[in-house]
Design goal:
- It is a single chain.
- The chain is an alpha+beta fold.
- It is built from 4 helices and 8 strands; from the N terminus they run ααββββββββαα.
- It is elongated and about 135 Å long.
- It comes from Chanos chanos.
Length: 249
Amino acid sequence: MSGKVFSLALLLFMLQLERGDHLRSPHPDIPDKDLFWGADQYDFAVVLPATALECFWHFAHHGEHFYLNFMVQWVTGVANDRHLSVTVNSPKGLLLSKVDDSTGQIGFDAEETGFYQMCFSNFHNRFGSMQVFMSFGVYYDGQVDADRQKEEEKKKKEETNKQLNDTLTTIEDSSVKVQGLVFHMWRHYNFGRMRRGADYYLLLSNGNYVRYWSAAQSIVIILAGYLQLFFLKRLFHTKTTTETDKPRC
């Protein structure tokens, strides 16, 4: 009897996982407008081996703006290719955006609440790995639903009727605006840092290329000179003669 109960509980748990409700709505009892509306961002680098696929998930609420910036910093291996295939899927598995390049930017407004999937594929390189720097996250520009917007407008009218010179509201709005501008400035700075990192690795790669080829060419020149000298000496090689051993015609 206990085995049947355990099997039934396991079956119900698997059905719940297949529905994916825990991914799309982590707080089913709380309405979406009452959740925390903030900014959440990450930036780091990963190394993708040859023909590897790496996926990441990030949570976004309906109405937030989702962004993804990426750049290939260096590539190793034989017949390497700097192109990277990047796809972004919705919580329901629908393809939202796809980029196949060494660098790219993806941005869109989240139409549904849930975990958005970002996949990075290195299938162009079958014998080499690459390092990818990525920066992704969400931010909220202040868009609200119609009911909440009406309530806020009503409260603002009441406040303006009571206090015409409310300096605290002006300071709060200015601080929010400054915070948003600083956040966007940080995004552009992060993208510039990715570009500088890619240039640095490219400079190191070119330096190693010039160094190795210079050493190889020096070895070839020395070896060619030695062989020329060896064959020239063989042309002028003379055998010493004695009374018993004389050169013959």
